[in-house]
Structures
1.
Amino acid sequence: MTIIDLNSVREARSPVRSRCPDCSGRLTMLRIIPGRATSEYWTMRCTRCGGIHLDIVKAAEPIGA
């Protein structure tokens, strides 16, 4: 399992969902998983209904690039 330091997380280049599509509750970050090329998988959980949601986002440029 990859540990992510949320203080070092950069902004995504593509829009990321902030509200649950089922109940409009707030989503909190569970995990960011590196994907292919410049993609990341952002796993989020709804604070209202408990639903788990996955967004595939285009990652920001690496620091120092």
2.
Amino acid sequence: MAENNSLAGIERLPRHEFDLDVEEQKQLQTQCEVEVQKVSQCSAASRQDGLFRLWINVWMICITTVKCLT
């Protein structure tokens, strides 16, 4: 908008050109919510994967330790 304000007369866009209508706002809000949910699910899956890998590593250390002790 700062650039628009610096333009001369006919080149300048009216203020309403920068406003979103209600339907556009709702659509963008919905898209944002969907994207946030995708990221949250991906993050949760990554945490679960990390915990599973940690559990496998601990289990392998335990198995190896038991074999060494016997």
3.
Amino acid sequence: MPLLPLCLSFYLLAVSLSRIFLVLLVLQKVQERWYEKLHEWEKALSAYERQQEKSPDDTNFLYGRMRCLEALGEWYVVSKLFMPS
């Protein structure tokens, strides 16, 4: 088998996999917001908590958790997020 078609095949596979990975990342970020829009507060909160464990410095996940907790009426938990012990 000639080398050029083989290299091209591997390149196309790598490009396809990177695009699939990018789509999955975008869908994962969208998932939390959609749960919020559907008023699925517990699911959204759980999704934000999972994401925040992976990226603790990303404040978007913290704000998402706060919105969900507010909607659930968990004011005490919201206040704990601002005043860690």
